[in-house]
Amino acid sequence: MPAATLASFPPAIPQNPYQRLLYQHLEPFGVRLADKAELKTGWLIRNRRRVRILHFHWPQGYYRWSGRPSWAQRPLSWLRLSLFTTRLAVARLLGYRIWWTIHQVFPHEALSPTLDRTAGTILARSSDVLTAHDHATVEVAVRELGIAPERITVVPHGSYVGVYPLQLDPEAARRATREELGLPEDAFVFLAFGHLRGYKEIGLLLEAFAQVADENARLLIAGLPLDEQATAATQEAARRDPRIRLVLEFVPDERVAALFAAADAAVLSRGDGGTSGALVLALSLGTPVVAASVPTSTELLHGERAGWLFTPGDAASLSGALERAAGDGTAATKGAAAREIADGIPWEGLAPSYAELLRSALAGRGDDRLSGVDGQVDVLLTCSSGGHLLQLLVLREVWEPFERVWVTDDRSDTRSLLADERVVFAHWPTSRTLRTLPRNLALAWRVVRRTRPAVVLTTGAGTAVPFAWMARLHGARVVHIETLTRVDSPSLTCRLIAPIADRVYVQWPDLADVVKRSRYVGSVISR
Amino acid sequence: MIFVTIGTSEPFDRLLAPLAGLEAEELLVQHGDSGIELQNARMVSYLEFDELVAAIREARAVVAHAGVGTILTALAERKRPLVVPRRREHGEAVDDHQVVLARRLAESGLVTVVDDPAELPEILAGLNGGGLTTAPRPDARLVEELRSFVVDRVDARRR
User: Fold this and answer.
1) Each residue of B97-125: pLDDT tens digit?
2) Where are the alpha helices (H) located in chain B, listed in sequence order?
3) Between chains, do A487 and B97 touch, taking CB under 8 Å as contact?
4) B75 touches chain A (CB under 8 A)
5) Domains and CATH numbers, chain A
6) Does the reported pTM lie above 0.80?
């Protein structure tokens, strides 16, 4: 693919190994990471020539407003969302390609599902490339955001193998960490690793672990506490049950592998499906996982090959899974399987898929729609497919003697009927949606500046509007021929084009009385 | 062969249902999103444009909704289509423009309007020939005005 600079949203920070690994592996394909990125109109304008791709990971920070007072969060978030939408439109208009890796359809700490759904729908519609790490996320995105499934490409989450090196050999690290945390050598240790945020997730685990009868089981909870209620509940549980150990602080990179080395199994109590990253981390460190039986987990764990599954949200089921893990003697085998699964998803193997998606996104929009179209023309003919095209075609005697270019929709009738013509295909659909308008305005700008038509002939509908307007701005004369279907009132297209048209022809005499400055001199099928 | 098409917009069961009574003759039906199954017909949901033209060309009779694209394609093949206009009151279209258009075109003898689709079997049985001798052409005045407009502008620029 051609070299291209990419801006990540939120910006990639060194502490996030996921973004670091991803972009590091895209570098050999010519993708450079912009050092600074702001989703602001000024930044977008200044960097339009330098940066080609905008890559969204977790977009919520760009449309949610989370300050105080809390009653203002909803209205201000909707306001921010409208700004976000505008900036996306500006980005598209400036020719940026937009890539969204859908990590989660409904992010953590949802303020309003409607807000997230609306934002997701808008971002998905603005995106040229959509990727997700598992089919489960694709299903949710299709259902909740109305995305066509074929638009989302599943590229697995790359492994963290080798990212968190151990300072000691695994056996020594296991002994040292256990000794330090007061975990007996022969205990079966579960590790719940990650930021402590949702009370629901940790509450379920604490409740389930309390029901585990095995005296030899231990639960190690490690991660930065972000939620007061969750932290309080965790500390309270640890006071009551001496089998629970806490490391409630930020865990630096060099300590991550040591914690996993001390554990026999990892446990992920979340049941909402968005757990790829945490799962992949455990697998990469050769640790089997107790996880909710949701498609994301079953996909990554290959059923129960590398772990034990429980019914999401069910404490008794989780407790049962913990007991099975501690008692069934398969942890070592499943740990080996975990590492094997992680070895099967190296970033080196995944990067080419991303590079290919970006390559076609960079090629697929914009200039190659204009291939074969160069030099000045006399006439630009623009219309939607179907009846509009047929009406313009039967006026062949009008346009045939002139140098010309067509702008229409990419449909089977236009491809067939205009096979021998020079055609630019507009972005589609254009009726009853404004989604493609920014892209068509940008395309119109390029078509018109390249072909400099003297006259525009149009029969409508939606597709013709941005092209007629843009040509008029560049001095072309516009003639609109209102479609035969309008007998007693003008179409919306007619109302949009008439103000800039030199001539408006209608095809029924009575309509001429209704549409100002219009003329009736017969129709396209007068016999 | 009788070719029936309802285009690519909303379902149009009201047109399709009465065709179940047709026997005796080959029937090709492009049914879009209509869920109706006709045992006596070859059902296709969508036709590429070239296939549509071929079907119209081959058909003894063309039955269609009153969409301008379909009508113009039929007329170009010198077929006078039997059209059933989509009606807003049945949720078949957003407005009644097909009703008005069909009536106007029928006045010029370009289409035959069928207001009650239940009559379709009878009309089709009685239909004999009825094609157009020539495809309709655009009005010469319209062509002339448009052409002189383009010529003037293009010449003005060349000078």
Assistant:
1) 999 999 999 999 999 999 999 999 989 98
2) 13-16, 49-58, 68-76, 97-107, 120-126, 140-158
3) yes
4) yes
5) 4-158+347-364 (3.40.50.2000), 170-343 (3.40.50.2000), 371-520 (3.40.50.2000)
6) no
